Amino acid sequence: MLIDGFQSILSWVQLALGVYSAVMLIDAATRREDAYRAADKQNKGMWLIFLGLATALLFLLPMLSFLPIIGVIAVIVYTVDVRPALRAVAGGGRGPRRGSSSDGPYGPYNGGR
Which own/partner contact pairs does 16-22 have at CB distance under 8 Å and 24+ positions apart? Predict the structure, then answer.
């Protein structure tokens, strides 16, 4: 009975990870190809292959096998490294842009005035 409960929880976790992986695959597919090059993050095709394989493995194989865990690692790398770099390059931040192009790290640059 305890093992059945663990398997049930694990299958819900695997389903959630599979859905999240599919969302990240769609996100990667909607980004521009030149943003990947500008962010210096391999290329769009490679990330589509990685995330597509991760999604397929999460839906087809049991979670405790080796390959879905590698897929989860690929999704995590895309989420925490590639996606923020693509958003920074493409200007996909949330809300209105604050500051101006002459702002430095310590405030606006006023030309020595």
Answer: 17/58, 17/63, 17/72, 17/75, 18/55, 18/58, 18/59, 20/75, 21/51, 21/54, 21/55, 21/58, 21/71, 21/72, 21/75, 22/55
User: Among 3-12, 14-23, 60-69, which is the least confidently predicted range?
Assistant: 3-12
Task: Identify the burial level of 78 via C-beta atoms within 10 angstroms of its C-beta, where 0-12 means exposed, 13-18 middle and 19 or more buried.
Answer: buried
Distance, CA of 83 to CA of 20 (rounded, Å): 14
In whole angstroms, give the CA distance from residue 41 to residue 21: 18
Structure tokens at 104: 């430095």
Structure confidence by residue, pLDDT tens digits, 49-84: 999 999 999 999 887 788 889 999 999 999 999 999
HSE of 108, CA atoms in CB hemisphere, 13 A: 6
